[in-house]
Amino acid sequence: MSTFLQKLSRTVGHHFSPHVHGAPILRLRDVRVEYEQTVALDNVSFEIQRGDRVAVVGPNGAGKSTLFKVIAGVERASAGTVEIFGNEPEGHICIGYVPQRSQIDWNFPVNVADMVMMGRVSKIGLFRQPRREDREHVRRALEQVGLTDLAKRRINRLSGGQQQRIFIARALAQEAELLLLDEPFMGLDAAAQQSIFEILERLGTRGVTILVSLHDLNMASKHFGKVMLLRSRLLGYGAAAGVITAEHLVAAYGAHLHMVKTADGALMVSDTHCEGCE
Ligand code: ADP
To answer: Domain segments of the chain: what residues?
Structure first.
């Protein structure tokens, strides 16, 4: 089965879990995830409140994608607990998980509107036809991400920024309360990045909780209320000023740390993009 269909089939299996009164939207306690020889996440604990907008940063291999997968229920923790509104994440309908674009089979023969309608599958059920209400959710989602005019276009005929926006629309159609976006800015030009920021800002004001993994630390501190710094373990979490410190960055990036003095004297720091390159 293609990666695309595997992802879809996971969505189809979703069911609604009731929210536990007073529980945070997301709570991890001592989470550990292992792949054969690798410990991808170790002893990770944090809470996220409804409406938070969090940038997840760290070098390649730090466990960012794994963190999203374990929250979405795609990977299982070998120790610790993940709770969404006080429930286990498996099949929780309020999560919209958007994997990296490179993991999607874009040649799957569907158009933009069909792709966004797939966000409704867990509400519709597999064997019922979409109702007017479902089509209205799709229409609104496309409008919110500015893709109304492209509704009938095949998904393999879109730019990278448009592809990213389809997936945000799909999560909106799903009525996701928690949006997990893995490297949504990767490979996009400045204009496409800006349009994604604007969409995320609008969703944030509507109470959607957003976790975004990215490489650019300046972008993380400028556009997100909170920053989470990972290197298998959680090195820092909170306002950017308290997290993006020299001590934390050396612990996270080691030799891959780059510091550049800017005109106003601030230090800009970024990671290298490829594993093993200088
Ligand atoms: P990031 O998103 O920060 O680059 P990942 O979560 O992709 O980090 O990876 C964390 C670690 O787990 C890396 O060492 C990676 O090689 C390893 N890893 C990720 N996925 C798998 C997998 N399916 N099988 C084995 N190892 C994996």
So the answer is: 2-269
Task: Give this prediction's pTM.
Answer: 0.85
Nearest CA to ligand 1 atom 26: 35
pLDDT in tens, the chain (278 residues): 444 444 444 443 344 556 777 788 899 999 999 999 899 999 999 999 989 999 999 999 999 999 999 999 889 999 999 998 888 776 566 888 998 888 888 888 899 999 999 888 777 766 677 888 889 999 999 999 999 999 999 999 999 999 999 999 998 898 889 999 999 998 889 998 998 998 998 888 888 999 999 988 889 999 999 999 999 999 999 999 999 888 888 888 886 665 555 555 445 455 555 444 43
Domain 2-269 in CATH 2.60.120.280? The answer is: no
**Residue nearest ligand 1's atom 13 by CA:** 61
Ligand 1: nearest atom to the Cα of 60: 4
- Could you tell me the distance, in angstroms and rounded to a whole number, from the CA of residue 53 to the centre of ligand 1? 24
Q: In whole angstroms, what is the distance from residue 246 CA to residue 251 CA?
A: 9
Question: Which residue has a Cα nearest atom 7 of ligand 1?
Answer: 65
- The secondary structure of 141-186 as a DSSP string is HHHHTT-GGGTTSBGGGS-HHHHHHHHHHHHHHTT-SEEEEESTTT
